[in-house]
Design a protein that fits this description.
- The protein is an alpha/beta fold.
- It has 2 domains: about 5-100 and about 250-280, Rossmann fold (3-Layer(aba) Sandwich), CATH 3.40.50.10860; about 105-240, 3-Layer(aba) Sandwich (Rossmann fold).
- Helix content is about 40%, strand content about 20%.
- It is built from 12 helices and 12 strands.
- It has helices spanning about 15-30, 45-50, 50-55, 65-70, 80-85, 100-115, 130-145, 160-165, 180, 225-235, 240-255, 265-280, and strands at about 5-10, 35-40, 60, 75, 90, 95-100, 125-130, 150-155, 170-175, 185-190, 215, 235-240.
- The strands form 2 sheets. It has a 6-stranded mixed β-sheet. A 6-stranded parallel β-sheet has the order 9-8-7-10-11-12, with helices on both faces.
- β5 (about 90) and β6 form a beta hairpin.
- The protein is globular, with a radius of gyration of 18 Å.
- The two termini are about 30 Å apart.
- The relative contact order is 0.14.
Length: about 280
């Protein structure tokens, strides 16, 4: 049987992962499929443990399941153990393995949008959120040598594992104090789902960000979030969430289908056009 993979989340209708993997399957001339699966949190353990019975060779895991996936896999990679979050799973000799490709996906998206050497000038980051995606963002920024990373969370205690990555370089901040911290921020990253189609807006005033700062948003539906629109209005460099989505997808495709693809301008244009069509239809398809 041709290999079958998935992306599981709740909600999941917004996901463009099937379009990405379908494009690569076609371009590589491979048999196989990749589909969306909406799985509620209480049903997720049964879904993940039943992959073989469902005919899946593996798949991607997105909001809100990344931390649960880490607890459920049998063989997490060292990177997944560090983050205690998994976004890519596969079956290997009947064993459920898991990795976190968001780390490299995020920093590679910064490389593509901001150019080589961005980490030499954007040395102080403020990351919004403390969930699975935020862990990948913080780990990636630390690996690139940033001097200071502040994590803003509604529940500051939830940020403790991220502070533990590097206690001398990472600090936690209550979400309500974010705007006061913007003056000491070179790179602002939204690692929450706020601003995504169907979710509440972030509602953040960027007036305090210094000139020369950059703003990144892991949300890609819509492609231009309210946060990025406000940043562009101030003339700040911006990084949308599509680059991270494209780059994090590469290792999973290689695991499931045996070929390592690359993001291309043609693929990005395809996803952008699909997002634009969805927005014209009211943001939901």
């Amino acid at each position: 049987m041709p290999p079958k993979a998935f992306v599981a989340g709740h909600p999941i209708a917004h996901s463009r992962s099937p379009l990405i993997h379908g494009y690569w399957l076609e371009r590589c001339g491979l048999a196989g499929s990749y589909e969306r699966v909406d799985v509620a949190p209480d049903a997720f353990p049964g879904f993940l443990r039943g992959l073989a019975r469902s005919g899946f060779v593996g798949g991607n895991v997105t909001i809100p399941h990344k931390e649960a996936a880490f607890r459920l896999v049998d063989a997490p990679t060292a990177r997944a153990q560090r983050l205690r979050a998994v976004n890519t799973v596969w079956l290997e000799d009947g064993v459920l393995a898991g990795d976190n490709t968001d780390v490299t996906g995020f920093v590679e998206s910064l490389d593509a949008a901001l150019g080589a050497g961005w980490e030499a000038r954007l040395t102080r980051a403020l990351v919004l959120g403390a969930g699975g995606a935020a862990r990948a963002v913080v780990a990636g920024l630390l690996d690139r040598g940033l001097e200071r990373v502040v994590v803003a969370a509604r529940d500051v205690e939830k940020a403790a594992p991220l502070v533990g990555f590097a206690p001398t370089r990472v600090a936690a901040l209550p979400f309500g104090e974010v705007e006061r911290a913007l003056g000491d921020t070179d790179l602002l990253v939204n690692a929450t789902s706020l601003g995504m189609v169907g979710r509440d807006p972030l509602g953040l005033d960027l007036a305090g960000l210094p000139e020369g700062a950059a703003v990144a948003d892991i949300v890609y539906a819509p492609l231009e979030t309210e946060l990025l629109r406000a940043a562009r209005a101030r003339g700040l460099a911006t990084v949308d969430g599509l680059g991270m989505l494209l780059h994090q997808a590469v290792p999973g495709f290689a695991r499931w289908f045996g070929v390592r693809p690359q993001p291309t301008p043609e693929l990005r244009a395809l996803i952008e056009a699909d997002l634009a069509r969805a927005a014209a239809e009211g943001g939901r398809r």
